Amino acid sequence: MASLAAPPPKPPFSRGPHLPPSSTAAWKLTAGRNLRGGLAANAVAGGLSVSWNQREKNSVFNGADEDFLEENVWDELDSDLYYWTKPLRPVQWYPGHIAKTEKELKEQLKLMDVVIEVRDARIPLATSHPQMDAWLGNRKRILVLNREDMISSADRNAWAEFFSRQNTKVILSNGQLGMGSMKLGRLTKSLAADVNVKRRARGLLPRPVRAGIVGYPNVGKSSLINRLLKRRMCPAAPRPGVTRELKWVRFGKDLELLDSPGILPMRISDQTAAIKLAICDDIGERSYDVTDVAAILVQMLTKIPSVGSRALYNRYKIDPDGIGGKTSPFNDSMATIVKQRFGFLSDFRKGKFGWVALERPPR
């Protein structure tokens, strides 16, 4: 099976010669002018930022050109994040219960017939533990992309195709409403069907299939179990760190599930991934500065084609285009206003900007 772990952090610029941010901005500006027949743009933090009113005026161009621009927006976004995160305090969170859980979980995984790894569908790569492949070895695995209701159908299809090419069993789910939970139960039992075939061949009685549910904090592991069981057996809340110990629960007569606390690396080396965890509330709030994270999210959304500056203007009556620099995506005073007056991060987490993924599959 191909590795499911997130790839190592991309270098600031992975296409062509290594260029300074200003050169990359110039390249993107030139590309935009060539495709749209002349386009005013604001270059911020090594990328192209087109204001919403400019987009409105320059909205007529063919679909192939639009796809080209969108692909390059996603290509450049990680490069922008690299520069935006460099001056910030590193996002790190490793409370004591995670260290204890990791040790216990590695022992329990030896007993598993199937492992169900849950990730946040908005950031499937950022919520992949770098040591998961080593822990699981050749053990059968199902990948669940939870919160599928918070991304677009195009994003869902792109990720499903990406993991299918890796021969990975993937299920898109909504742990809050239960979508995908019954399919998960059936797939888990079918993957482990040979367990009892082998037991019978040795003259042993059948036993329930054992499945462990693992993943980062607050990706919806306990909610998924509760939906499978159709009753609240595991504590669940929309914040990291609620589940603090391993717990076995029985699903019918033929399936046992192990709920586990969220696990994180002791040190997160990829800070672009760490910022995405903070944005999506998949890491403890004490680990990051809310103003910094809100500032970065503002600029991310202005660059993501499905949102853009206009959505921010319509909701908050502010135009963030042109506010920023090489190392800071947003000035401090504006970021503070967004955080305190508008509850910006909370709005994003509640889906106020529609179905928005913060990652696309690598090409």
Please tell me what the overall shape is: elongated
Mean pLDDT figure: 76
The total count of helices amounts to 14
Strand order of the largest sheet: 5-4-3-6-8-7
Full CATH superfamily name of the domain at 95-259: P-loop containing nucleotide triphosphate hydrolases
Helix content: 40-55%
Q: What's the order of the H and E elements?
A: HEEHHHEHEHEHHEHEEHHHHH
**Strand residue content:** 5-15%
Q: How many strand segments?
A: 8
Name the structural class.
alpha/beta
Description:
The chain has 363 residues and is of the alpha/beta class. Among the domains are: 71-89 and 289-349, no CATH class; 95-259, P-loop containing nucleotide triphosphate hydrolases (Rossmann fold, 3-Layer(aba) Sandwich), CATH 3.40.50. Helix content is 43%, strand content 12%. It has 14 helices and eight strands. A hairpin with a 3-residue loop joins strand 7 (247-251) and strand 8 (255-259). The protein is elongated and about 70 Å long. Residues 10-61 and 234-242 have low confidence and may be disordered.
Q: Quick gist of this model?
A:
GO terms for molecular function: GTP binding; GTPase activity. This protein is an alpha/beta fold.
